Amino acid sequence: MPTTDAPVLTADPPKAGTRARTVGRVAAAALAAALAFGLLAGPAGARSTTTVATAKVSGVGRVLVDGDGMTLYTLTDASGDPVDCTGACLQAWPALTVVAGEKATAPKSVKGVSATADGAVIYKKKPLYTFAGDTKAGQAKGNNLSSFGGTWKVVSVKAKPTTTAPGRSSGYSY
């Protein structure tokens, strides 16, 4: 029988240990394919570039959203300091991440979005999370929920007036 890196189908029963090697090769090939097609991108589903945008969400106004339009949240304690979401918390509140060392992008009008060395996407020094209870873009079911040691808040973006000439307003920009 020829030696190959791919599984070999034969009519003969496999020799002892062959099945484990074949399953291992198939699993490795599936993982490589998933990585190549961007289905997995590092720890916790991190992507090499993560886009943060803004969107108007009913009931909460203009907020930060991820590249899929899902509302972004921060977790803070009573004094407004960030609380780390770890373990079981991350099941309900997945962290927005990039592959370590890569970038998070945001519109020029949104200042304060960046990625930490370990891949966490932050806004004004607070980690950003999505909420598993938001099943589609435009929802903010997690706003003002208290759990995991703090209160979850949508990341609101305030409108700033823009002017075309001194004393003359042209409207609002986000």
Structure in words:
With 174 residues, the protein is of the alpha+beta class. It has 2 helices and 11 strands; from the N terminus they run αβββαββββββββ. The chain folds into 2 domains: 14-44; 46-160, no CATH class. Helices cover 13% and strands 32% of the residues. A 3-stranded mixed sheet has the order 2-1-4, with no helix packed on it. A hairpin with a 3-residue loop joins strand 1 and strand 2 (61-66). It is globular and about 30 Å long.
Output the number of helix runs: 2
Strand content: 25-35%
Shape: globular
Arithmetic mean pLDDT: 75
- Helix-strand category: alpha+beta
Helix fraction? 10-25%
Number of domains: 2
Poorly predicted regions are: 1-14, 17-44, 161-174
Strand order of the largest sheet: 2-1-4
Radius of gyration: 23 Å
Task: Summarize the helix and strand pattern as letters.
Answer: HEEEHEEEEEEEE
Major beta sheet summary: 3 strands, mixed
**What is the count of β-strands?**
11
Distance between the termini: 66 Å
